[in-house]
Design brief:
The complex is a heterodimer. Chain A is mainly alpha-helical. Chain A has 21 helices and no strands. In chain B, helix 2 runs antiparallel to helix 4. The chains are: A mainly alpha, B mainly alpha.
Amino acid sequence: MNISAIAMFFVFVALTLAITWWAALRTHTRTDFYAAGKTIGGLQNGLAIAGDFLSAATFLGITALVYVAGMDAMLFVLGGTLGWAVILLMVAERLRNLGTYTFSDVAAFRLERGSVRTMSALGSLAVAIPYLLAQMVGAGALIQILFGLPYAIAVVIVGVLMTLYVTFGGMIATTWVQTIKAVLLLTGGTIIGFGVMSMFQFDFASLVGAAVDAHAKGRAIMAPGVLFTDTITVISIGLSFVFGTAGLPHVLMRFFTVPDARQARRSVAYAIGFIGYFQSLIFIMGLGAIVYVSTNPEFLTADGSLIGGANMAAVHIAKVVGGDFFLGFISAVTFATILAVVSGLTLSAAAAVSHDLYANVFRHGRSDDATEVRIARITTLAIGLITMSLAMLLEGENVAVLALIALSIAAGVNFPVLFLSMYWSRFTTRGALAGGYVGLAVSLILVILGPTVWVSLLGFERAIFPYDYPTLFAMPANLIFAFLFSVTDKSARAAAEVERFETQWIQSEIGIVEQKV
Amino acid sequence: MLPQADRDILENADFHRLVALRRWVSWSLLLALLGLYLLFALLSVHFPAFLARPFFDDGIVPMGIFLGYAILALTFLFMLAYVWIANSVLEPLEKKIVVDLAIRTTDREHN
């Protein structure tokens, strides 16, 4: 057990609980609860967005990918950054101009609110819950290794803290927790990156050369194809990252925390800078781990594999760079990363239930602030209890499966619906429902029939669907069904929805005209 | 029936300029970046040897890492370019459209 890690963990928890108490005093309305009063500036929101995206899966997972497969990780690094270009150029400003609290506000702007909101809320929950479980199951395993705590206690700690942050502090607390964590993670990554580079006199070629010499696969890690060899898998990974990011509900919710479209634009620009910078450090961390971790018996088990698995490569290289104290810092930052990301996800799931389903579908937009916030808090509590229970049951499961389901659904369900609702005038409710539900069904069915679930989890000999990633099939299926069901919709409702597009188009370009005039 | 304010905006030539300019800038930048990413992905599957060869004849850093970092840098530069265009060209145009609309609305109320 690392004493410095435990000390820093308690400092972080104490600080974030103090922030939650401070935020609770400022959370009165639903705008405060869901959108931090729409007062967050571009820089802070950029940090919070970067924090949302730079989860433990990115920090630990992609470093592990570099450690294991070298160049193949570049597809993830590039995809993860390009997804933000899609958000900046296509989504951010329009989302801020059209929506209030959730992306369903935009999807249902000119369509039939009840049915489209229900579908969007289900899409949000279908993304948020597995993503949340992936983080919690991963957190349990990670804390077991980092702090020596039993899995169940680790899950309860994460669950209780995230429930406290969101229930009492809402988006204000979530944003501040995310901002602090992003600063800590960027600082930690910078120290590791510079530490590794300093060992090679800041000569990147020497680092690459040493990694090639140290890795069992030798020169092969500097060529693509160690992990991914077929076009369909590679294109699906690309689509999942590039368009799935723009369909993650907790990420999209962040654009409603800023006062206007200009700050939304600034947020993404800052976020791209932070994310791109961190992603480029990840490659250095991974290569450094190949050189210094894979060759050091201190980090290896008796059979020669890495202690804690490949996912711990980033943590071990931290110890190489800064000793036990810095290892403690990185361990606490990793835990902070998980806490911050699960808080954002919990809030987005709670908003899907309280704002989309309760307030707009069941109460037809007639609920008051206090009731809606109370429902959101109760939902947060319920989500906390449900995910803690499920995470207990899922101990030892492959967290990549859960994260994969989330990103695939985001790309296969949420993004096409959001994109078509903002850009295609002939998009109708019928098209949105057909496309959304088909995308959801195709994503889920293909993930279940694929090798990761069908073979690894369920134990069958051969997968019915041969690919791990279904996005190349789910996303086009959504788009095709949305197109066909929209263009063949000759109803009066469809005509009215098409007519309302011009008003939506104007608002998406310049904001709410009446307010500005 | 569109609200009067919306009809006024649709009649404003600056609004159509704004829409066309934003569409041109954002789609050009996005398609360029997505094209590069697709190219990288296809190269990694069909021509892995190309990405594996050293960028410099006597070097060790492979073309793939060099291209990957170049695409990352280009993404950041393109995003900076978009933000600059949005702040310096698109936003003033938006403000002008709103001012024009306010003037038209005031005139209509006075008449």
